[in-house]
Amino acid sequence: MEPDTRPLVAGDTISLSSSRSADIDLRKQNDSELDRKGDLTARGDSVRRKERRFWIKASIIIISVLMIAVFLFCVLSGYYSCTKWEVLLVLAHGILDGVIWVLELPCLLFPDLAYTIGNPIPVTWSPNIDLVVWDVRVIRIVAVIFIGGGLALSGASYQCLFRNPLVSESILGVSNGACFGACLAILLMLPTFFINVLAFIGGGLAVFLTYTCSKMLRGNQTLLLVLTGTVVSSIFSAGISIIKYVAPTETALPEITFWLMGSFAKITKGDLLYLIPIITICAVILIRMRWKMNVLALGDREARALGVSVGKTRAIIVVCSTLIASVSVCVCGAIAWVGIIIPQIVRHMVGPDCRRLMPCAFFIGGIFLMLVDVACRATIAAELPVGVVTSLIGAPMFFMILFRAKTAWA
Amino acid sequence: MGVIELQQASFSYDGKTDIFCNLTCTISTDNIFCILGPNGIGKSTLLNGIMNLHPLKSGRVLIDGRDVKSYPPKELARKVAYIPQTYQMVFPYRVLDLILMGRTPHLNDANKPSQDDYDKAMEAVCALRLEPYLDRACTQLSGGQLQMVMLARAIAQEADFLILDEPTSHLDYGKQMETLKMMYRMHERGIGIIFTSHNPDHAFLICDRVAIMNHKTFQETGSPQDVITASTLSEIYGARLQLIRYGDELRGTVCAPASLDIEEW
Fold first, then answer.
1. Is there a contact between A291 and B112 (Cβ–Cβ < 8 Å)?
2. B161 and B191 in contact (C-beta within 8 Å)?
3. Which of residues 7-66 of A touch B (CB under 8 A)?
4. Chain B residues within 8 A of A7 when measuring between CB atoms
């Protein structure tokens, strides 16, 4: 088998040079492509950056305006008999009180500066309205914003982490796990703090079980994760049933039952004291990790090859997301669908890039749940359970998204 | 100048049967190093071993004299860039974002890409003429375009070594040439290239070192002209092959069936 030496006919496509170091220039281009920079780079890039900044500004403005509008709408609507104008006055009065308190701070620090600023809005309403607006409606709406935003954010994080647009805290079993933990704590008559702790442990256990079980099986991981999540979820829901069965009918059972139904009606200032810090801290951590989440969504091996320490990052994201989901379960029971449809909708609006997806998901989740909550408490005289309404809205929405975006996940 | 050293490297998935054992080899940034071998012989596994994506059973991989297992992921990613054979894109990231992800090892913790990172990414984009695709979703790209995007990402990563797992598989002929050319250009810039291939012609065209992987080890290592012979190829691929030379250079060598008679293949 002697090598056959024949000249190649299409000689013009290959420049044969005698020295090895000479380039194998297949298209006879003299400039090295890797050095091709030029004006095009700079110009194109600055245009792109400007465009990007414009859109960031625009979306911040749109989201803030929407947020304030929906907030006002929610504060104004309700069944307490008072005029809308009164509610607005109460709101303005309260906000001015806050501003005045800040302005009077120097007086507290330096007693020599004795000045007082009067609130320009005179109190012409009964103290009950004050109570309704500030201690009932505003507290509830603030809690709703944080829970809605937190659930959407944790859903988006789970989706990136597990590389699966079909998961959320309820599908992974976190909601049921957290409910199970909380019910156990109520059954054992533990104080509120331990209800939170056990809810977190239950949620964490659920996501751990779901993930490890799906990894043990071979096949389509997107599907398997959803399936094992369903299995784990149903195990925990069976656990909840057992707790309800053994719970004493006089004390723990009614408490568990009402708590499981979940609603924002019972939210107090005390709930906000731990709800807001925990969700804020977790949300900030998650949003700060959004670039790593982008890389992580490419897959474990690629993420590692790109220099992300996968184990550590994954642990932080799971802990934060699970903490958010568990805390919101503790405050208002399991709210399904927010964690799955909001990231989906936002992904359709701003694209899959977590740098935009994460903050947008938080705020749009908050806005969405505010609207759902106002629908719950202001459409009919009796209050609807919030989970029912999110399911009624979420399920058909999810189907629509599945229908429209079938190509994206195939 | 960077060096990757394999010292008595062995790997096994189940702890019993070795995929490869006692591999010893030194690759520097001066090399374009090609690993040839039949299907399923463990070429990809070896690359994963070098990247510490699958930890070795025994032996060591040293990069610049330091064991890969002791590298933090970020530092390792600054030394070695890796392009896998297949990608599973779940989310339709834009091409520019995907290329920017190559800058990840150069970012601080929790940092987003800065203007500088955008510039580096755009340089890579220009080098590979990917400007028209910047805003395209990467799930809509063809295999060849995606390969170019991955090369751009590797350029933006600015690592000392680039490891490619069968970079020319499932590409058309033009895209294969383009890929090889870009690999050569990166080599000219002082980046060491390590890749696996099923095409000995490509080894002839751009490589200065070739390893034949067979029977769990490197059967031979050396310059393509020394290592790739008709008999070796016939042995590893289990077919009767010959080498045909064109032009007046050894690089112009292609592999072809020894005979046109189908019965004799």
1. yes
2. yes
3. 7-8, 11, 14, 16, 18, 20, 23-24, 26, 32-38, 40-41, 44-45, 48-49
4. 246-247
CA B49 to chain centre: 13
Report the residue from B73, B101, B245 with minimal CB separation from A309.
B73
Q: Which CATH class is domain B3-264?
A: alpha beta
Three-state DSSP class for residue A153: helix
Q: Which amino acid is at B10?
A: S
Q: Report phi then psi at A315, rounded to 5.
A: -60, -45
Q: What is the pLDDT of residues B228-237, one digit of tens each?
A: 999 999 999 9
Distance CA(B40)–CA(B101), nearest Å, equals 30
Q: Which helix (H) or strand (E) holds B28?
A: strand B20-28
Q: For chain B, which residues make up each domain, given as ranges?
A: 3-264
Note whether A307 contacts B184, CB cutoff 8 Å: no
| CA dihedral (A271, A272, A274, A275) positive or negative | positive
Structural domains in chain A, CATH included, are 80-125 (no CATH), 132-409 (1.10.3470.10)
pLDDT tens for B31-43 read 999 999 999 888 9
Which residue has tokens 């088998």? A1
Give pTM, 2 decimals.
0.85
| A393 CB within 8 Å of a chain B CB | no
**CA A242, CA A244: separation in Å to the nearest integer?**
5
Chain B residues with CB under 8 Å of A164 CB are 90
